[in-house]
From TrEMBL:
Key words, A-Z: GTP-binding, Magnesium, Metal-binding, Nucleotide-binding
Source species taxonomy: Eukaryota, Metazoa, Ecdysozoa, Arthropoda, Hexapoda
GO molecular function: GTP binding; GTPase activity; metal ion binding
Gene Ontology BP terms: establishment of localization in cell; system development; vesicle-mediated transport
The name this protein goes by in its record: ADP-ribosylation factor-like protein 16
Gene3D superfamilies reported in the protein's UniProt record: P-loop containing nucleotide triphosphate hydrolases (3.40.50.300)
Residue numbers binding Mg(2+): 13, 33
Keyword Nucleotide-binding applies: yes
Length: 175
């Protein structure tokens, strides 16, 4: 199973819609997820589907009830919102130390890159204490720079979701 988590308004629903292949234009808007959204994502050849469960940021206190059997976790941060990044980092730390998530692969999404300026990526990683996080985490962390608005980074994220090792493990688990 794959989970998509991150603070309120970090752009999870928007990003998942884009990954799912929904039409996105200037008129597209989202409502805050007060519960769970399910998205069906196809791989590049359209052969496999993956279900991603987005849990709203307002539900952070109860995210942990959904951790069981999570193979992959997409953690979305609004990189343009400097006031929120440290809090997003603290929340992420609490996921990294959770015993249920020790074998989960994590995609750290620096989102809303369409609003970026030159140093945004570096500043965000500094505020997250990323180098320390990477040393201390038992999980494999991969960074993606994305925008649900422009589609930046979407295909890289899709390739991460459908990497052959994960697919093989999923097929074996269903045998
Ligand atoms: N510029 C820009 N705005 C974005 C992007 N992604 C989302 N937004 C805007 O950010 C707001 C929140 O996006 P959502 O996708 O609803 O955020 P969320 O993380 O699902 O929020 P919750 O469901 O409340 O946890 C919306 O108004 C979107 O239009 C992006 O990549 N670029
Ligand atoms: Mg949402």
């Amino acid at each position: 199973m794959c989970l998509c988590l991150g603070p309120v308004k970090s752009g999870k629903t928007f990003l998942m819609k884009r990954l799912q292949g929904d039409e996105i234009d200037n008129a597209t808007h989202t409502v805050s997820t007060n519960g769970i959204n399910l998205f069906t994502i196809k791989n590049t050849t359209g052969e496999f589907d993956m279900i991603i469960k987005e849990i709203g940021g307002s539900m952070a206190p109860i995210w942990k009830h959904y951790f069981k059997k999570t193979r992959k976790l997409i953690y979305v941060i609004d990189t343009s919102n400097l006031c929120q990044i440290s809090a997003a980092g603290v929340l992420l730390y609490s996921l990294l130390v959770d015993p249920t998530l020790q074998n989960t692969k994590i995609a750290l999404i620096l989102n809303k890159m369409d609003l970026s300026y030159r140093q945004m990526r570096n500043e965000a990683l500094l505020m997250l204490h990323y180098s320390r996080m990477q040393k201390e985490a038992t999980q494999e962390l991969t960074i993606f720079e994305t925008s649900g608005m422009t589609g930046q980074g979407i295909e890289e994220l899709r390739n991460w979701l459908f990497d052959p090792i994960t697919l093989k493990a999923a097929i074996n688990a269903n045998k």
